[in-house]
User: Fold this.
Amino acid sequence: MGVNVKELLEDLNRAYADEWIAYFYYTWAADFVEGPCYPLISDRLDKTAAEEHEHMSELSDRIYELGGEPERDFEDLQKIANCKKVVFPENERDLESVVKAAVEAERCAIDVYNKMVKKLAHCYDTDIRTFHLIEHILSEEIEHEEAFENLLQKK
Ligand SMILES: [Fe+2]
Ligand SMILES: [Fe+2]
Assistant:
């Protein structure tokens, strides 16, 4: 079975929007957190944000290669995103809730990329490059989730 490029471009653009949203919230939260574990959590959020930004660029490159265009309207990014929001607590010292929100966000990303990998596996022969890109991003999302979960266990 061949690739449905129109559907694939929609999926890639939704994931592209997810990465922007994760990048925004993690960058915001890195400056928001306070308390004794502050540097550990803040560094982890910054590091993860940088990787989400990298994912966003990789997806953007692939969208262009396939003849599409990444979403150019900022307002529409949230409309098309699968994972629309990361809800952080009101209190910047509630570090457990900050980290739990990041774990939830990573679970949403893992779910999205898992579904994409399964879809792409059906047309592996015709689009190996997208398959490997999504597989690579998925493995990094799993690493992110584990890293945030480890922070929870340290408490
Ligand atoms: Fe990501
Ligand atoms: Fe992630």
Summary: The helical segments are 5-32, 38-65, 74-80, 95-121, 128-154. The mean pLDDT is 94.
